[in-house]
Amino acid sequence: MLNRYPLWKYLLILVVCVVGIVYALPNLYPQDPAVQISSTNGSLDSQQLDRIQQALSSDDIAVKSARMTGNTTALIRLDDAEQQLPARDVIDDMLGDNYTVALNLADSTPAWLTSLSAAPMKLGLDLRGGVHFLLEVDMDAAVQQRLDATASAIRADLRDQRIRYRGTQIDDNTLHVEFANAEDRAAARDQISQTYSEFQLADHDEGRRAFLDMTLTEQSIKDIQDYAIKQNLTTIRNRVNELGVSEPLVQRQGPNRIVVELPGVQDTAEAKRIVGATANLEFRLEARPDAPDSETETFPFRNDSTRSATLSRDVIITGDRVSSASQGFDQNGQPQVNINLDGTGGSLMNQATRANIGRNMAVLYIEHNSHVETVMQDGKQVEKRIPETTRSVISLATIQSALSNRFRITGLDSPTEASELALLLRSGSLAAPIYFVQERTIGPSLGAQNIQRGIFSVIVGGLLVVAFMLIRYKAFGVIANVALAVNLVLLVAAMSLLGATLTLPGIAGIVLTLGMAVDANVLIYERIREELRRHTPAQQAVHAGYGRAFTSIVDANLTTLLVAVVLFSIGTGPVKGFAVTLSLGILTSMFTGIMVSRALVNLSIGGKPVKKLWI
């Protein structure tokens, strides 16, 4: 019998529609602006939470709800996102340094939907608001750091091989190693050429002084710089993950720049401090009294500039050997950072401390900054970035026994400093310093305006399509519009299930999808009209219209889908958001335009004597 579906097809369409409605529902429950409180000393209870609510109310900050989410954590929901920062300031002043107060967005999805793993779509930077950073990687510093590390390693290797040397010096991209005579230089050259293949080696003499010049090749410099930006990308992603930002964007732009977008972040100072922090650690032994000046360096203490320590230039390990780090307190209640090293770091630390029990070991804190100066260049005033590197000792302690891969750092000023240092060590050290080139802040009000305009555009576009289909195809236009509504629900559900981020280009993709979704119905209905003009019976005309238009519908949608795939593969940021929405919309529109609308037509006229079609 014409125009009848088997029962399983109706059930399949029903199941898909019900699932789509369930997973699209969470988008009707927007996230609440909230402030999250966590205690670092384990003292947070409901009485304190009540006092916090009273303090917020006295400052005219409307609290939607407040509850304990754990033994030492609480979540306060607010009515207005504009009140998050004032609320955090009030709570900070009230609680002090022993508590961490962070801005957050709390889900308001009902529990029964959450139990089904249903969640709303994430909003992008242009909708939720947040910060946009453009960072520049100091490529020259990356090469300099590699040369410093190589010089330290070569000094250690030469001592192990009992080859005498006088010192090392770095000049541009060349490392100069000085020897007492040509024989020692020849022995060192044989050793170095086997290990450091990225250098070009050359001998030169200055009087009785014998030098071995190690110059980085052009390819080696490119490899170092490429590694630096890739490592920085990884490190910054780890830091952003530590901040707990949902759907962040961290990607490379050009040869030496990184774009960071943090949707929902309002505390730009905190984000900038964590993302752009260039601190790293070095563990060094205190220099022996008889050590030559060429092998020692003197640094001030970070918390007491009147004190200083003279350290060996050789580095035991750096912060990139840290596998995990956490904040804690010592027996005197002072902040500390508990550190775990990786396998190589643990071996190096054990080897160095086992042979130097009784000597002091220092933790050197290294921070890279910069300032901009206006200088004359080719007769014009240009801004030039001047890098600055600050090194200071944060801990100097006697080695009591051989250390392994677990130990602690003390001598920190506050729990906040310990927490930030632990975060930086956990996320990894930067391979080269980074500098902020551009910073933009998008407020929540602008995001709300974008959302309103986006929703308005979807409504207007949808209403125009609905009106056209009703006027053009009458009763069949109603069926097409029902299928269009189902298509929109399924599209939203698919984006929510996949965890896609909704942006303004994504909304543009939804509007385009609404326009394209009825293409299939237009092709089918025009084919039915053509059959009716040939005086084909109504049931046969409907059957032929759906059957003969199928190939054209698939061809048209496949070509558009290929374009969307290409956009996603080569595009970035907004282009990808548009491509994702368009791809999902094509798939859902094919399902609704062919199967759902056919099912509605079959249920309406299938198997019934029909003399005239309202089309």
From TrEMBL:
<keyword id="KW-0811">Translocation</keyword>
<dbReference type="InterPro" id="IPR022646">
    <property type="entry name" value="SecD/SecF_CS"/>
</dbReference>
<dbReference type="InterPro" id="IPR048634">
    <property type="entry name" value="SecD_SecF_C"/>
</dbReference>
<protein>
    <recommendedName>
        <fullName>Protein translocase subunit SecD</fullName>
    </recommendedName>
</protein>
<keyword id="KW-1133">Transmembrane helix</keyword>
<dbReference type="InterPro" id="IPR048631">
    <property type="entry name" value="SecD_1st"/>
</dbReference>
<dbReference type="Pfam" id="PF13721">
    <property type="entry name" value="SecD-TM1"/>
</dbReference>
<dbReference type="InterPro" id="IPR022813">
    <property type="entry name" value="SecD/SecF_arch_bac"/>
</dbReference>
<feature type="transmembrane region" description="Helical">
    <location>
        <begin position="454"/>
        <end position="471"/>
    </location>
</feature>
<dbReference type="InterPro" id="IPR027398">
    <property type="entry name" value="SecD-TM"/>
</dbReference>
<feature type="transmembrane region" description="Helical">
    <location>
        <begin position="546"/>
        <end position="571"/>
    </location>
</feature>
<comment type="subunit">
    <text>Forms a complex with SecF. Part of the essential Sec protein translocation apparatus which comprises SecA, SecYEG and auxiliary proteins SecDF-YajC and YidC.</text>
</comment>
<feature type="transmembrane region" description="Helical">
    <location>
        <begin position="504"/>
        <end position="525"/>
    </location>
</feature>
<keyword id="KW-0653">Protein transport</keyword>
<dbReference type="Pfam" id="PF02355">
    <property type="entry name" value="SecD_SecF_C"/>
</dbReference>
<dbReference type="Pfam" id="PF22599">
    <property type="entry name" value="SecDF_P1_head"/>
</dbReference>
<comment type="function">
    <text>Part of the Sec protein translocase complex. Interacts with the SecYEG preprotein conducting channel. SecDF uses the proton motive force (PMF) to complete protein translocation after the ATP-dependent function of SecA.</text>
</comment>
<feature type="domain" description="Protein export membrane protein SecD/SecF C-terminal">
    <location>
        <begin position="437"/>
        <end position="601"/>
    </location>
</feature>
<dbReference type="Pfam" id="PF07549">
    <property type="entry name" value="Sec_GG"/>
</dbReference>
<keyword id="KW-1003">Cell membrane</keyword>
<feature type="transmembrane region" description="Helical">
    <location>
        <begin position="577"/>
        <end position="601"/>
    </location>
</feature>
<feature type="domain" description="SecD export protein N-terminal TM">
    <location>
        <begin position="2"/>
        <end position="103"/>
    </location>
</feature>
<feature type="transmembrane region" description="Helical">
    <location>
        <begin position="478"/>
        <end position="498"/>
    </location>
</feature>
<dbReference type="InterPro" id="IPR055344">
    <property type="entry name" value="SecD_SecF_C_bact"/>
</dbReference>
<dbReference type="InterPro" id="IPR001036">
    <property type="entry name" value="Acrflvin-R"/>
</dbReference>
<comment type="similarity">
    <text>Belongs to the SecD/SecF family. SecD subfamily.</text>
</comment>
<keyword id="KW-0812">Transmembrane</keyword>
<dbReference type="Pfam" id="PF21760">
    <property type="entry name" value="SecD_1st"/>
</dbReference>
<keyword id="KW-0813">Transport</keyword>
<dbReference type="InterPro" id="IPR054384">
    <property type="entry name" value="SecDF_P1_head"/>
</dbReference>
<feature type="domain" description="Protein translocase subunit SecDF P1">
    <location>
        <begin position="229"/>
        <end position="286"/>
    </location>
</feature>
<keyword id="KW-0472">Membrane</keyword>
<dbReference type="InterPro" id="IPR005791">
    <property type="entry name" value="SecD"/>
</dbReference>
<feature type="domain" description="SecDF P1 head subdomain">
    <location>
        <begin position="297"/>
        <end position="432"/>
    </location>
</feature>
